Description:
Largest sheet: none
Shape: elongated
Mean pLDDT: 90
Low-confidence stretches: none
Oligomer: single chain
Strand content: under 5%
Radius of gyration: 30 Å
Number of strands: 0
Amino acid sequence: MGFVFSKSVNDSLKAQQEFMVMNSRLQLERQLLMQNQMRERQTAMQIAWTREFLKYFGTFFGLAAVGLTAGAIKKKNPGVLLPIVPLSFIFAYQYDMGYGTLLQRIKGEAENILDTQSTLLQLPKGPLTYEDLEKIRRSQSKFFVEK
Length: 147
């Protein structure tokens, strides 16, 4: 009688363990999906912000170019056009970020760093451990009581 009862308890325990493993896996998959969705949304916001900024900066750049060109012609001094050079670099960068291939190039370079230069990504003193965090917490805690 005890053997039958023990067998059913073992079967129940095994089924519960399988359920917990499946539940943990499902929770991890959901977390990964959520993190990816958040990353995609943040990237989309960054691109949208860049495109919106480009509208205003493009207008400023156009007006500045026309004004500086008119000033250079009026004063007969081509040096007045000099501020257009750095402004054009900023404009080109913003355009490339919003409508060009800058993000793909950044992604490619990031993948290259991950593949070939992973030592650059290591944290000083290595990754944080539970023991490190506990040591810091204990040193900063005023209410810690040692057991």
